[in-house]
Each structure stands twice: as structure tokens, then as C-alpha cells.
Amino acid sequence: MKATIICIGNRFVPADAAGPTVYDRLRELALPTGEIDLVDGGLQGLNLLPLLERGGRVVFVDAVSGFVDNDADRLVLLDGAEISTWPEQHRFDHGAGIGYLLAVLPQVCDGEMPREIAVVGIEGTYDAQLIERAARLSIEVARHGLQGSR
């Protein structure tokens, strides 16, 4: 199944730079040619909709908050249903995020809906080791889906 990894966030704001930092690491790795597309989603918001209309599997990589109770592991893996429960789901301003994007998708999709959507989330501060783990996990989810990665 064709997959797209979309790394989102603002590389100029440290608290929101996890996605772009993972993107930079993924560019250094050898992704399976023709199997996984890598996208620097930055702050594109609703402009990402066309990337979600190609079917297949979509893996977002982003900074998250409110999912980790302790400092033991700040890497989270969420599926589409979990994403729809984010508090940001009900925001409609510039900061609406992935939840809003996914809420709008079924209403405006002109192509094929994704078969599976996941978020590799990094909570709080991160280091090179956590970025590496997030990059590897995003590749694993893109290749094998959530069931093969949990």
C-alpha cells in the first residue's frame, strides 16, 4: 500500500519543531523508493487536503501535548479515532491542526480517502535519540500500518 509521511510544525518555534526535525532526519534515511512519499507539511493546514485524497496510508509526525502522564516515554502513536478526540478538534482558527483537517476531509474529498491515518507524536522536549525513534516508527507505520507497529 502506498504511504505518505507528512511532518508538520514550525521549525522556528522549538515547542512545535518536532515534525520538521523528524522530516530532516527522514531525508537522511533511505526510504523505500516508490513506496513512501515524504512531505514537509510545515504550517500548510488545509492545504494538505490534496495529499490526503490519494488513498493509501497517511502518517503525520507532529508535536503533541496531553497524552503522556510521565517522562518515561514521550513518543505516542495514535490512530484516526484517537485523533478525532483531541480538544483541538473543535477549533476552527489558524491553530486548529490535524483534528480539524481530518474533520473537513470527508466533506471535501474529491479523490480516494486514506485507508489508514496515524500520528506519530512527540510530547515535550526532545533529543536526537527521540527524533531517531520517531523517524523509525513513522517508517514502520508507513510500511506496515498501525497493527504491525503497536
Automatic annotation (TrEMBL):
GO terms for biological process: protein processing. Transmembrane segments: none annotated. SUPFAM superfamilies: HybD-like (SSF53163). It holds the Pfam family HycI. Keywords: Aspartyl protease, Hydrolase, Protease. GO terms for molecular function: aspartic-type endopeptidase activity; enzyme activator activity. Gene3D superfamilies: HybD-like. The keyword Glycoprotein does not apply. PANTHER family: HYDROGENASE 1 MATURATION PROTEASE, HYDROGENASE 2 MATURATION PROTEASE. NCBIfam families: hydrog_prot. Belongs to the peptidase A31 family. This is Hydrogenase maturation protease.
